[in-house]
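Shipment paperwork, digital attachment
Item: protein structure file
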Amino acid sequence: MPRKPGITDEYIIKLYKSGMSFKEMIPLIGLSDQGIRYVISKHGIPMNREKSSGQPRKHKVNENFFKIWSHEMAWVLGLFVTDVMVV
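Attachment content:
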């Protein structure tokens, strides 16, 4: 889906920072939600999950789980490797 004429990256960022959700932005801009995410990430704007999906996370997620070596991380990696090997 092409971007509507006259819509700049700066305008998209302005709408996003004003608190508008992706669902509201799509008809105004003419891009899909993935296209809007690309423009925002291209300019290094931090994403707010509540704005993009419309709801906060339901479960707590440790995003740094694989950054520090531990026995638990080794177990999960081993599970992934053996599962791939079996298939």
